[in-house]
Amino acid sequence: MKAPLVGVLALQGDVAEHLRALRDAGAEAVPVRRTEELQVLDGLVIPGGESTTLWRLAVAFDVFEPVRKLVASGLPAFGSCAGMIMLADQIADGVPGQQAFGGIDMTVRRNAFGRQVDSFEADISLSGMRDGEPLRAVFIRAPWVERSGGDVTVLGTEQRTGRIVAVRQGSLLATAFHPELTPDRRIHELFVEIVKGYR
Ligand code: GLN
Description:
Elements lengths: L4 E5 L5 H10 L3 E5 L2 H5 L3 E4 L4 H10 L3 H9 L4 E4 L1 H5 L1 E5 L11 E6 L9 E8 L8 E6 L3 E5 L4 E6 L4 E7 L2 E4 L10 H13 L1
C-alpha cells in the first residue's frame, strides 16, 4: 500500500520536526499553506507554536475556513500544543475573538500550567496505543484539557496535576505536549494508523 500523504500546516511553529516524525512513522509528509495543497491530503498535522498567531495567519492565508471544513468533514488531524488549541471546540483564556478550527468536543485552557513552569518534561502514561511504557513529554507554555465530551477518549494525563494532556475523538488526535521534539514515535505512529484507516 502506498504511504499516506500527510500535510503539516506550515504557517508557523515546529513544522520540520513534524515532517521528520511523520516520515519516521511511515507517511509521506509535506508542508502545506495553500487551499489547493490541502485538498489532496489524507491527513493534516497542526504544529505547536502560538495559537493566536496560527489563527491570524490561517485567516490571512485564506486557509482558516478550508481547514475548518476539512476537519469538520472528517479529515484526520493531529494537533500538538497550539495545534491542540486549534482543534478544540472551546478555548479558555484565549485573546478576544480568538477562533479555532474546532472538531474535538473539549475546552482547552491556554498556558494552563502557569508562568512559573513555562517549560517542563514529564512522563505520561498512555493508553490506546502500542505498549504501556510512559512517554517522556516536553511541555512548552502548554495547554491542558479542562473539559472533554462523551465522545472524547483520554489517552494520557500529566501525573503531577492529574490534567488531561492527550485525547482522541474519532480521526482527531491532540496532545498538549510536543511528541515531535522527542525520539519516541508512538503518537505519530498512532496518527499514521488513523490516517490509513480513514483512507
Ligand atoms: N501557549 C501557546 C498558545 O497559546 C502554545 C504553546 C506551544 O505551542 N508550545 O498557542
